[in-house]
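Friendly challenge for the regulars: who can give me the structure tokens for this chain first? No prize, just bragging rights.
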Amino acid sequence: MRLVFVCQSCGCHYLVPPALRYPDGGRASAVWCSVCQLAAAHRGASEPTELAAVAVLLAVRALKAALAARATREQPRRADRRPTRPTVTSRGRTRPAGARARLA
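First reply, four minutes later:
Bragging rights claimed.
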């Protein structure tokens, strides 16, 4: 699973590479999406360090919570137990359909 961030400027959710580095060598922002990061670079604004640290902390905390929730949903299988048979839902009738109506 990857970290999901929320852009502090426009509010959209976005994914960044795990090392916060793009393949072209550029640094990904934990505060702004790529569009808002480009707009901030054109304005000459720098990323607030404290806000970036909090954003990374919150994203890691959300990832850990999601992994913990997934672990509690999935029950581990016991190795010493054979799998059970699937339930049979379409079992054939053993007597004619009208037999019950005649008995009543």
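Strands lie at 4-6, 13-15. Residues 49-73 form the longest helix (25 residues). Your move, everyone else.
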